[in-house]
Design a protein that fits this description.
Elements lengths: L1 H13 L2 H19 L5 H8 L8 H26 L8 H12 L3 H34 L4 H18 L4 H15 L2 E2 L6 E2 L13 H19 L20 H21 L8 H16 L11 H25 L5 H12 L6 H6 L1 H22 L3 H5 L6 H20 L2 H19 L5 H23 L11 H32 L1
Antiparallel strand pairs: 1-2
Keywords: Membrane, Transmembrane, Transmembrane helix
Pfam families: TctA
Protein name: Tripartite tricarboxylate transporter permease
């Protein structure tokens, strides 16, 4: 009952006209960047991060959550109409969604995606409302050793499980950790990797790194590799932008199964919604093969419904894990964690105690964002597709300008602009050689937490590092990590054997 009362108070805060405006702005921006290939919610949040420091924290995070959810809605529009998913999380939806569009059912495909994303996100929001406080209470049992184990779990999972090449994932992680330790050590006062430059004594700003890697690096990459932004012709939807009773009956079980698959991945740092969307698609494909008249490959509505629900349910649960545990499961969540710290807030149990108005207004805004996104995407998906008509030079020149203005506005330092350019080149090189970016961001965000926790644990045990593997929580986390790594290794071995059989 207390939870419902707190949620009601959250709705009272979220339903003010100012916060409703920021929900709408976030949903509009998220959908817009999701529609355009190469962009995504992580880039949008990174660009907005230096601009929103003048906002109240509640308004800023309500807008960020709208961008996060809206990006997934927009990604599927691109995949369905052009067979070019905006982000990796929309790849699974493209397989059957584009075939539906080719068969003259583009409007129904867009409606299936919008309703599926709404169902997944709405159910996840309900679960988060009741689960996040329990997770926050549970996290009060965490000490330095437990937080270090949690950080190690996030490092290993995001750098080796999600990426196709574990070496590249670990390399990206260590780049992020290396950037995180630059500056004066807070304990000893000794400068680290500063090259005796006073400009580096305070370290490299996380805002600068995120904007440079996710936004400026993408601009340079697109400018150098023109083929990256080419795509097919847009299929123009016609007919009814809603589903018939028969189509609803066909899609409903897939929405339910996709939502159930996506929920657990929201609290596991496995890189976001890519894995659950493929798992949901694979399950529907196996179930379809048992039917008398299989539909997969011809535009099966279940092959689109399940991944969409899985993707948004994962995103909704990811927000709960971020608020309750301070655990980011994707690059976008990592940037939002950095935003909390920029406002002097630390997600976890203390956040629920020190800023309950912010937490519950943010949780209430999830429900509002789902309804707003359904209204924006169900009848107006084709209008969003017209954003693809914006000339690429103008679009990416504008992004570059916002990068520079945002960084200069927060620091007023020419050195930070040069750092923006330098890290942006690093981001471009990582894209060019297919290095993942999420481990870098998560390494930089969680690196200070891991270092501080390691020191505190060692000091509390008089230098006995065995304290790091003692206690039920730490042992459980390491056991889960071994299971996740074992599952990833097994999956890759099976995939390699299948490729060898096909080649033979």
């Amino acid at each position: 009952m207390d939870t419902l009362q707190l949620l009601a108070e959250g709705f009272a805060g979220a339903l003010t006209w100012q916060n409703l405006l920021w929900v709408l702005v976030g949903c509009l921006l998220g959908t817009a960047v999701g529609v355009m290939p190469g962009l995504g919610s992580s880039m949008a949040v990174a660009l907005l991060l230096p601009i929103t420091f003048s906002l109240e924290p509640t308004a800023a995070f309500i807008m960020f959550s709208g961008v996060y959810f809206g990006g997934l809605f927009g990604d599927s529009t691109m995949g369905i109409l052009m067979n070019t998913p905006g982000q990796a999380s929309a790849i699974a939806s493209t397989f059957e969604g584009h075939k539906m569009a080719l068969s003259g059912r583009a409007a129904q495909a867009l409606a299936t995606a919008a309703i599926g994303a709404f169902v997944g996100g709405f159910v996840a929001s309900i679960v988060v409302v009741f689960l996040a406080p329990a997770l926050a209470d549970f996290s009060t049992r965490f000490g330095p050793a437990e937080f270090f184990a949690l950080a190690v779990f996030a490092f290993a999972a995001t750098s080796s499980v999600v990426t196709d090449n574990a070496v590249k994932g670990l390399a990206a992680l260590f780049i992020g950790l290396g950037i995180a330790v630059i500056g004066v050590d807070g304990v000893s006062g000794a400068p680290r990797f500063t090259f005796d430059s006073p400009n580096l004594f305070d370290g490299i700003s996380l805002v600068t790194v995120t904007v440079a890697v996710l936004a400026l690096g993408e601009v340079i990459y697109v400018a150098c590799l023109e083929r990256h932004i080419t795509g097919g012709a847009i299929i123009r939807p016609s007919g009814r932008p809603w589903l018939s009773r028969r189509e609803l009956k066909e899609a409903a079980p897939a929405w339910a199964r996709g939502t159930a698959i996506g929920l657990p991945f929201g609290v596991v740092p496995a890189g976001g919604s890519e894995i659950p969307t493929f798992l949901a698609y694979g399950l529907e494909k196996r179930l379809d093969a048992r039917r008398r008249h299989p539909m997969f490959g011809k535009g099966a509505i279940r092959g689109l419904a399940a991944p969409e629900a899985a993707g948004n349910s994962t995103t909704g649960m990811a927000m709960g894990a971020l608020l309750a545990l301070g655990l980011p499961i994707s690059a976008t969540a990592a940037i939002m964690l950095a935003a909390f710290r920029q406002y002097g807030l630390q997600p976890g149990p203390l956040l629920f105690e020190r800023a309950p108005d912010l937490v519950w207004a943010l949780l209430a805004s999830f429900f509002i964002a789902m309804i707003v996104l359904l209204i924006l995407n169900l009848p107006f998906a084709m209008l969003w597709a017209k954003l693809l008509l914006i000339p690429r030079p103008y679009l990416y020149a504008g992004i570059t300008l916002f990068c520079a203005l945002g960084i200069y506005a927060t620091s007023g330092s020419t050195f930070d602009l040069l750092m923006l350019l330098g890290v942006g080149v690093v981001g471009f090189l990582m894209r060019a050689v297919d290095f993942p970016l999420a481990p870098l961001i998560i390494g930089m965000v969680l690196g200070p937490l891991a270092e501080t926790s390691l020191r505190d644990a060692a000091m509390s045990a008089n230098g006995d590092f065995s304290v790091l593997v003692q206690g039920p929580i730490t042992l459980t986390l390491y056991a889960l990590l071994l299971l996740v790594l074992g599952f990833a290794v097994r999956s890759r071995i099976v995939a390699r054997k299948r490729r060898e059989l096909v080649d033979a």
